[in-house]
Design a protein that fits this description.
The complex is a heterodimer of chains A (377) and B (338).
Chain A lengths: L7 E14 L5 E16 L4 E5 L6 H8 L7 E6 L2 E2 L5 H10 E4 L13 H12 L4 H14 L16 H13 L5 E5 L7 H18 L2 E6 L2 H7 L2 E6 L2 E7 H6 L4 H9 L35 H5 L1 H9 L5 E4 L2 E3 L24 H20 L8
Parallel strand pairs in A: 3-8, 3-9, 6-7, 7-8
Antiparallel strand pairs in A: 1-2, 1-4, 4-5, 9-10, 10-12, 11-12
Chain B lengths: L8 E14 L2 E14 L3 E5 L6 H8 L8 E10 L2 E2 L5 H7 L4 E4 L3 H4 L6 H9 L5 H5 L2 H11 L5 H4 L9 H12 L6 E5 L7 H18 L2 E6 L2 H7 L2 E6 L2 E7 H6 L4 H8 L49 E4 L2 E3 L15
The chains are: A alpha/beta (377), B alpha/beta (338).
Chain lengths: 377, 338
């Protein structure tokens, strides 16, 4: 194929942190496997959502892509080049190509810099530009994010939270990037302001064909913004694929539990709630086999399956076009679904309803047999 | 299960005003708020940050920061008695025993240098009834932890807060708040610091305890998902006032105030992908510089000149459902547009 390499390619990325003991003669007593072998691809102009609970490795992934952390294994490639081996001009080019917008606009903008300097900084550092060009670019960006160019010489404290996040977005866009990392871009903002920022990001993507890697714990936000989604649990991707596909037919028991725990948007929409027992285990000593097995409602109810889940780590396998799951339920062997029913999901016909119903009865049956919120550590 | 007379009003707030006085002038954090909570009911107070929901809650316990702020007007009737008129020593008997509070961040509401058991026992000593004389405090503390579904409570009593996870700490905070079996619990965004799966565990726990004890809950939140899951009635606050008040289904099905409608429409939905979120333009007004008339008028798409003339009265749109909006006035259609 004569295709050029994709914008961002994360290949089998691992980031382990050593847990040490002692002050001077430090001994490594364990490894925190923050990110443990994840892969995904982002093409130009696309949004990829990364969801999961806190401590699942979303932010570490984002940091590694931004070159703020060295990976333990695996690689992050931008246009086919490993970003952790870049030097000189290529490194400069990478820094201009990949930018970030963080969660909290109160701490991400320097209080001592004027707005125009904040926005221009990324441009001046990364691109060779003339002075006049900088001023023109700053007012152009301010216009695009819905602020007035006359506000360029104000300081961040003179703006409200939503306006500050607009400034952060403008400075992310300054150096004509191809990829922007959005780390919880709206969770620090007020409810009525969130929609403004999400719509702004959406419009800017249409206009500049910029791609987003969006880290969020709010599932509804990801459904609104992303074309592709990866669900993470304890440093691994458990489910990955087209956003609409995943949200319509979540397959992994964790994804189903996560979706059912997200509250519905209307009191009349009542979902079967799958309450997971316990809390996320420590990543220092993750459980053997499938790391979700001690909390998995399906495995807990079926001892035969549990044996396999404990002993064998499931791999991410494609179960429907563009939909990958890492779970023994769908990797053959203990498959409780009739063959082919998953592939027929896309038919939109009877097979879909049948398969969906089967999954639902499976989960509801399971839910009854799981004891009430049992908290153990 | 305790049989609760659901028609009984536990708490009635009438025309409450809590103002701050500072160098910018008078900050009208709570500016004429009235609502009623019935026994066993959950009332949700929804609004953005800075709309006065937390100040309303702390005024109910008279814990608003003093001397910076003052409750200048209104009455808070707890079982018919106005707690604003109580002397301080009587007010101490109300806090914890009658009205209790769960705060947002469990990390800051527990004392880091005392064990969890110590803090529970401290709360339990204020319990002044039959059971407290019969059983040892330690036994009661264990039971309190068991009630909030903490596993192995006997060992957990000896833990310090830092040895517990966030969800577990928030359970302990709940146990402390419920130690004296209060009539009302004020939960001020109790799940904001928790993950979604833990949040669901916690919400279910609160519902269970409510069903068992019959306490009323005032749930303060900005998340309509929590409102849909937890509340029987909703009061929507904007810039220090309640703009709409009604049963939860009515609020979701026929929002009567444009702010409520816009707020519900601006939240992305998990059930389906919308093409574009409804967007409320502008920012809420500053509480020290409030406009004359309706406070939402500058962001409202229905606004007419009449909105700037006076603050609208509460119009009854349905049974138990009212909204402060000029659109429900009989003369609205004939009012001239801009």
């Amino acid at each position: 194929m004569g295709l050029s390499p994709p914008l961002l390619e994360v290949i089998d990325l691992k980031k382990h942190f050593a847990v040490t003991k002692g002050l001077i003669l430090q001994k490594t007593i364990g490894q925190v496997k923050a990110v443990d072998g994840i892969s995904f691809t982002i093409n130009e102009g696309e949004t990829h959502g990364l969801v999961g609970e806190s401590g699942c490795g979303k932010t570490t992934t984002a940091k590694t892509v931004l070159r703020l952390e060295e990976p333990t294994e695996g690689s992050v490639n931008v246009y086919g080049k490993n970003v952790h081996q870049l030097k000189g001009d290529e490194l400069k080019e990478y820094r201009a190509t990949v930018q970030a917008v963080f969660q909290d606009p109160w701490s991400s903008l320097s209080p001592r810099m004027r707005v125009k300097d904040l926005i221009a900084e990324a441009l001046i550092v990364n691109r060779r530009v003339e002075k006049e060009e900088v001023a023109a670019r700053v007012s152009e960006l301010l216009n695009h994010v819905g602020l007035h160019p006359a506000q360029a010489s104000l300081f961040p404290h003179e703006f409200s939270g939503g306006q500050r996040q607009r400034i952060a977005v403008a400075s992310g866009l300054a150096s004509y990037p191809k990829l922007i990392l959005l780390d919880e871009p709206v969770s620090a903002l007020d409810v009525s302001i969130r929609a403004q920022i999400l719509n702004l990001l959406w419009d800017l993507q249409r206009e500049y064909k910029v791609a987003y890697l969006m880290v969020a714990h709010n599932l509804a936000t990801v459904r609104y913004m992303a074309q592709n989604t990866s669900v993470m649990y304890l440093g691994k991707i458990v489910e990955q694929g087209d956003t609409e596909e995943i949200f319509s037919y979540p397959l992994h028991p964790y994804t189903r539990a996560l979706f059912s725990a997200a509250l519905s948007s209307h009191p009349d929409i009542v979902r079967a709630e799958i309450v997971l027992p316990g809390e996320v285990p420590s990543p220092i000593n993750p459980p053997s086999g499938c790391s979700f097995h001690p909390r998995c409602p399906v495995a807990l109810s079926e001892p035969a399956l549990m044996k396999r889940c404990k002993g064998e780590m499931p791999v991410l396998t494609e179960v429907a076009p563009g939909h990958r799951v890492a779970c023994h339920l769908y990797s053959g062997g203990a498959d409780p679904l009739p063959a082919g029913s998953l592939a027929m999901f896309k038919d939109g016909g009877k097979a879909e309803a049948v398969a969906k119903k089967q999954l639902d009865t499976m989960i509801t049956k399971v839910e009854v047999s799981v004891p009430e919120v049992k908290v153990t550590e | 299960m305790v049989a609760v007379d659901k028609s009984q009003d536990v708490l009635t707030v009438n025309n409450l005003h809590t103002y701050f006085y500072n160098r910018w002038g008078t900050v009208k954090a709570v500016d004429g708020v009235s609502f009623t909570v019935k026994a066993g009911e959950t009332l949700g107070i929804v609004g953005e940050s800075g709309c006065g929901k937390t100040m309303t809650a702390s005024s109910l316990l008279r814990l608003n920061p003093q001397p910076a702020s003052r409750i200048i007007e209104g009455e808070i009737l707890l079982e018919g008695q106005d707690i604003l008129q109580m002397p301080d020593h009587e007010m101490r008997n109300v806090r914890g025993r009658k009205i209790s509070m769960i705060l947002q961040d469990p990390q800051t509401s527990l004392n880091p240098v005392y064990t969890v058991g110590n803090q529970l026992v401290e709360a339990l000593t204020h319990r002044n009834d039959e059971t407290s004389k019969e059983k040892s405090l330690r036994h009661m503390a264990e039971q309190a932890l068991r009630d909030v579904k903490v596993a192995a409570p006997d060992r957990r009593l000896l833990d310090f807060p830092h040895q517990m996870s966030g969800g577990m700490k928030q359970r302990v905070v709940g146990a402390v708040a419920m130690a004296c079996s209060p009539k009302i619990i004020i939960a001020d965004e109790p799940t904001t610091a928790l993950d979604v799966t833990i949040q669901l565990q916690y919400l279910r726990l609160l519902k269970d305890i409510q069903a068992r004890t019959g306490m009323a809950i005032i749930f303060i939140t900005h998340d309509f998902g929590i409102v849909a899951r937890m509340c029987d009635r909703v009061a929507v606050m904007y810039a220090g006032r309640i703009v709409e008040n009604g049963p939860v289904r009515d609020i979701f099905n026929n929002p009567a105030h444009p702010y409520t409608e816009a707020l519900i429409g601006s939240v992305p939905k998990l059930e389906e992908r919308v093409d574009r979120l409804y967007q409320i333009e502008g920012q809420p007004p500053q509480l020290y510089d409030l406009p004359v008339g309706c406070r939402f008028k500058d962001r409202c798409r229905f606004a007419k000149p009449v909105c700037g003339e006076a603050y609208p009265a509460y119009y009854q749109v349905d049974e138990n459902h009212n909204a402060a909006c000029w659109r429900h006035d009989p003369l609205w259609d004939s009012a001239p547009p801009y």
